[in-house]
């Protein structure tokens, strides 16, 4: 049996990203596994552990029984504590052990996805004891492994795949969440904010607040926006996934209300 056509793009994007990650880290010397990433408290090794952990959960494996140290400053809430268990339990693993477990996990998950015959709306086990639709789980995994591939590439100085299938999914996940940023900031009625993104993916989107306070996003041109942010796709990704906050030197051009631009750039993260 093959996966439902609605799920196939997520499987293809996930496969491309996770195999790229395996190819990226397999030849790394041990010293590179300790390189810091833009995720607080996490090294290259830790991101690989995180990917392995969440993929094994998606496969159906039980979570490890493990008590976290009390001095992990980056563990601040229930979700980060949940995610950290998979990471901390593997901190003593060598790089060959990490590569072998990642490879084995990819093989099992790829086989599971290829044999998937359930409809997209089927409820399955998900994180923190919750349930979600099969489509939501596959979409989330495709999105997350590509974002983490980019985390790894930046940490290792090996850019690439910014226009891959995973990038397209990431764009389509992030853009619908931007109106919530305007809602959270309490933007006034009749305010429009333009995001002009260039690079491997190019698009322009306008977040609008109507006279009744309703917030929407579309691709039409806005006359006289309150602020226009012009930036490259990678910087847009880093801002919207919380890897950086505020003005990124030499990467963001601001036109219009500078104070509003600063508020936006500080609050642009739309992921946990």
Order of helices and strands: HHHHEEHHHEEEEHEH
Give the class from helix and strand content and strand pairing: alpha+beta
Report the CATH topology name of the largest domain.
Four Helix Bundle (Hemerythrin (Met), subunit A)
Mean pLDDT: 96
Distance linking N and C termini: 34 Å
Largest sheet: 5 strands, mixed
Strand residue percentage: 5-15%
Radius of gyration: 20 Å
Arrangement of strands in the largest sheet: 5-4-3-6-7
Number of domains: 2
Number of helices: 9
CATH superfamily of the largest domain: dinb family like domain
Kindly provide the name of the CATH class of the largest domain.
Answer: Mainly Alpha
User: Helical amount among residues, as a percent range?
Assistant: 40-55%
- The gross shape turns out to be globular
Number of extended strands: 7
**Can you tell me the residue ranges where pLDDT is under 50 for at least 5 consecutive residues?**
none
CATH architecture of the largest domain: Up-down Bundle
Textual characterization of the structure:
- Keywords: Isomerase.
- This is Maleylpyruvate isomerase family mycothiol-dependent enzyme.
- Pfam families: MDMPI_C (PF07398), MDMPI_N (PF11716).
- One of its GO terms (molecular function) is metal ion binding.
- There is one protein chain.
- With 272 residues, this protein is an alpha+beta fold.
- It folds into two domains: 8-161, Four Helix Bundle (Hemerythrin (Met), subunit A) (Up-down Bundle), CATH 1.20.120; 173-266, Nonspecific Lipid-transfer Protein, Chain A (2-Layer Sandwich), CATH 3.30.1050.
- Helices cover 45% and strands 13% of the residues.
- The chain has nine helices and seven strands; from the N terminus they run H-H-H-H-E-E-H-H-H-E-E-E-E-H-E-H.
- A five-stranded mixed beta sheet has the order 5-4-3-6-7.
- The protein is globular.
- The model has no long low-confidence stretch (mean pLDDT 96).
């Amino acid at each position: 049996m093959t996966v439902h056509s609605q799920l196939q793009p997520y499987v293809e994007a996930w496969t491309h990203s996770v195999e790229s990650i395996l190819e990226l880290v397999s030849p790394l010397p041990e010293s590179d596994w300790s390189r810091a990433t833009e995720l607080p408290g996490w090294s290259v090794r830790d991101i690989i552990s995180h990917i392995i952990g969440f993929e094994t959960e998606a496969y159906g494996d039980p979570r490890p029984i493990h008590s976290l140290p009390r001095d992990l400053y980056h563990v601040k809430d229930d979700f980060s504590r949940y995610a950290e268990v998979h990471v901390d339990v593997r901190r003593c693993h060598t790089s060959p052990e990490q590569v072998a477990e990642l490879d084995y996990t990819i093989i099992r998950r790829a086989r599971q996805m290829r044999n998937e015959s359930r409809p997209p709306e089927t409820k399955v086990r998900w994180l923190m004891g919750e349930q979600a639709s099969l489509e939501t789980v596959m979409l989330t995994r495709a999105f997350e492994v590509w974002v983490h591939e980019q985390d790894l590439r930046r940490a290792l100085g090996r850019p690439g795949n910014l226009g891959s299938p995973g990038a397209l999914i990431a764009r389509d996940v992030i853009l619908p969440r931007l109106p919530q940023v305007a809602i959270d900031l309490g933007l006034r009625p009749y305010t429009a904010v333009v995001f002009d993104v260039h690079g491997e993916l190019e698009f322009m989107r306008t977040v609008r607040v109507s006279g009744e306070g309703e917030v929407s996003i579309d691709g039409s041109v806005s006359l006289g926006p309150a602020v226009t942010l012009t930036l490259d796709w990678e910087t847009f990704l880093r801002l919207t996934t919380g890897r950086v906050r505020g003005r990124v030197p030499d990467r963001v051009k601001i036109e219009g209300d500078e104070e509003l631009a600063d508020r936006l750039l500080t609050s642009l993260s739309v992921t946990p």
